[in-house]
Amino acid sequence: MKKYLGILSILSLFLILGACSGSNESEGETTEESTEETTDNQEESTEEESDGSMYEIGDTAEIESFEWEVPYQVTVNSFDQAQEYDGNSLDSLVSNAGDSHFLGIVNMTVKNIADEPIVIGEYVYPNMVKGGSSGGEQYVYDLSEEDVSQELQPDEEATIDLVYILSEYGDNEHFELTFEQMSPNETAFRLPLE
C-alpha cells in the first residue's frame, strides 16, 4: 500500500510541475510568436535610443534633476581609459587591480540652466554602467572633489573630469554614463571602449 501511495505522490508531483511550468506552448504561443515579440521589443529599444535618450560623445543633453527639479545641461567631451590620472596610479586606488581594470576618465561640461545657483555635485550625479546593464559605478570622489564642489551661477558652465574605476570583461563594447538613473528623467551617454 505504501508503495502505491509513494508512486501516486510522485505522479501527482509531476502533474503539478507540468501544470506550473512556464512553457509558451501551453499558453498557445508558438516560437514564431515569441520571436515576433522579441523583434518588436528590439525595435522599441532602437526607437527609444533614436529619440534622444541615448547620447554620444560630443552631444549635449538637457536634464532635469528628478529630486530637486533643477535643469542643467551636460556635454560629454571625451572618455579616456588610462592607468593613471593626475599622478594617481590605478594601483594606488585599488589594491590587487587586475589586468582588466582601468581608470575611465570622463571629461564633461556642465551648464547651469536654472534660475538659481547650483553646486555641481549636489545636482549632477552620474553613474557609469556596463553597456545595457543596471546599477553602476560611482566616480572616485577624492579625485573629483574640487571639480564637483564648484558653484555655478545661472548660465555659467564648467568643464570637469570624473574618474571611475572600471574593468573590461566579456564582449562589453561600451559603457554608459547615466544621469538621474532609475527615474523618469534618466539620460545616458554611450561611451565606446578603445
What does this structure look like?
The strands form four sheets. This protein has a four-stranded mixed beta sheet. A four-stranded antiparallel beta sheet has the order 2-3-6-10. The protein has a two-stranded antiparallel sheet with strand order 4-5. A hairpin with a 7-residue loop joins strand 11 and strand 12 (187-192). The protein has five helices and twelve strands. Helices cover 30% and strands 35% of the residues. The chain is an alpha+beta fold. The chain has helices at residues 2-20, 31-53, 90-93, 120-123, 141-148; strands spanning 54-56, 60-64, 71-82, 84-85, 88-89, 101-112, 118-119, 127-130, 151-152, 157-167, 174-179, 187-192.
Question: In brief, what are we looking at here?
Answer:
With 194 residues, the protein is an alpha+beta fold.
